Amino acid sequence: MTALVTGATGFVGANVVRALLDDGQRVRALVRRSSDRRAIEGLALDVCEGDLLDPGSLRGAVTGARHVYHVAADYRLWARDPRDLYRANVDGTRAVLAACADAGVERVVYTSTVGALGIPEDGSPGTETTPVTLADMVGPYKRSKFLAERVALEWASRGLPVVVVNPSAPVGPWDTKPTPTGQLIVDFLRGKMFATLDTGLNLVHARDVARGHVLAAERGRVGEKYILGNQNLSLSEIFGMLARLTGHPAPRIRVPWALAWCGALGMEAVARLTGGVPAVPLTAVRMARKRMHFSAAKAVRELGLPQTPVEDALRDAVEWFAARGYGIIPGVAPAPTA
């Protein structure tokens, strides 16, 4: 059986590719010509060069694929031109699903995010059915993913066999760029984390997220959403785990939200003047006002989603980063370079 993975060079996509290969499936990857391919280098897969908004390359990529995993997304919390995120995430999703419909694909797994879900006001974990509207979305990334998820569910209502998965904050190997969550770990390893905010995340091992994609294709109900997550933790608890794993001290200072907001606003102003990227985007600070806590009970119950201990996920992440020179932890030597 052939499975197509879009976004295979990204963090989640690279782990999905490995899960499929481990199952003995033939894997095809849709990859842009300019993509950094380190995350899939050396893997036995077929690479199709193309673009989400190029109908010809999409037709070629989906032809003969039984399952399609649409993982590709523009995952940035700051962009000089936010329209880029809508083109990739919304228009790209629409184009991929149209190509899947034309090709008669048997199952499509669309990768959304918990960022497109609602967060209860009472502080309880969010679920797939927590009420939410576009007005609740903070920043262009979340808004674009919210709209893209609506596109996927619309195609499902029209008969395309689409299952939606909503990963929380994956951590683990092959986060080459890295993602915002991975960057938090890298900054910790580099001794750059001097303070924390009163916020929280749901962490999950990237391998469990990848396996959740495969299980969604096999067992997921068409038109349903599944949160791929594990443990809800405060940012202070995450830093505490990292401190135990690495020997680096956890930050002791908690920054007031208003001060963080002003700092991020200043960083964005400097970025626009210099052409750089803000170290802390304003969107990230605005998102931190709410704890991103969610329940993966539905995915565990219906899909059999694995629940690898989060401390193991963080250990795998820090060792992977350290071995590749992203940071330093005692006893882990950087991997040799060619």
Describe the structure.
Strand 5, helix 4 (139-157) and strand 6 (162-167) form a beta-alpha-beta unit. 42% of the residues lie in helices and 15% in strands. The protein has a domain at 2-175 and 202-231 and 292-308: Rossmann fold (3-Layer(aba) Sandwich), CATH 3.40.50.720. The strands form 3 sheets. A 7-stranded parallel β-sheet has the order 3-2-1-4-5-6-10, sandwiched between helices. A 3-stranded mixed β-sheet has the order 7-9-11. The chain is built from 11 helices and 12 strands. The two termini are 35 Å apart. The longest helix has 21 residues, at 83-103. Helix 2 crosses helix 3, helix 5 crosses helix 11 and helix 7 (235-246) crosses helix 11 (310-323). The model has no long low-confidence stretch (mean pLDDT 92). The chain has 338 residues and is α/β, with parallel strands linked by helices.
Keywords:
11 helices; alpha/beta; 7-stranded parallel sheet; 338 residues; Rossmann fold
What order do the helices and strands come in, and which of them pair?
Layout (H helix, E strand, L loop, with lengths): L1 E5 L4 H12 L3 E6 L14 E4 L5 H8 L4 E4 L12 H21 L3 E5 L27 H19 L4 E6 L1 E3 L8 H10 L5 E2 L3 E6 H14 L5 E4 L2 E4 H12 L6 E2 L2 H18 L7 H6 L9 H7 L6 H14 L15
Helix pairs in contact: 1-6, 2-3, 3-4, 5-11, 7-11
